[in-house]
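Ticket #4471: structure output looks truncated?

Reporter: J.K.
Steps to reproduce: submitted the chain below (210 residues) through the standard prediction queue, then opened the result file.
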Amino acid sequence: MSAKVTVDAEGTVTGNTYDKYGSSNPVVRRLMTGFHAQLDELWSLAAATSVLDVGCGEGVLTYEWAERLGDGRIVGIDLDDPLLHEQWKSRQRPNLEYLVMKAENLPFTDGEFDMATAIEVLEHVPDPAETVAEMARCAKRWLLVSVPREPLWRATNMARGAYWRSLGNTPGHVNHWSSGAFHRLLSQHGEVVELRKPFPWTMCLVRLGA
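Returned output as attached by the reporter:
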């Protein structure tokens, strides 16, 4: 899978500017192995029966989770991008549905899903508080969310020679999260039962309503 992006009329970037999931770079592969291992542990801890994946991108994780859910329902949502649609076609399962929509005002009922996820999404959205609130409304038990950790993320980009003109800021990143700020946002909706920091990310599993 090549790294391609689309920029809409509002300047929102969709897709991955860098294919971290498919990279052959040994350093990136090592970082992604750590990221995936931590994410997988939190996923297993939640033991969700149905999932809303907000900002599912190319559907790499969404499809993996669909396989693990068996017959459990999973819905991946993202913006209207033909490049993403092509990737979705190659990642299909009977229990998996992809929908085109923004994260605000989601057309799902309260508690329709057991868990809502947003993996590497909140750095992109114009109003992350509103996005998390909608996720919490649609989920019954859990939120699972990850973001790049600043300033480590920028430093990592610059170390690999990327985005020097923007001081290492990845295109489309409009929010820059410290672990503390990320924790404070998510704790408004429940108990942060796990906070993990696989370099250079932060991820949280939140028990809603606690």
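Triage note (M.O.): checked the attachment and the full token line is present. The domain at 5-208 is CATH 3.40.50.150 (Rossmann fold).
Status: closed, working as intended.
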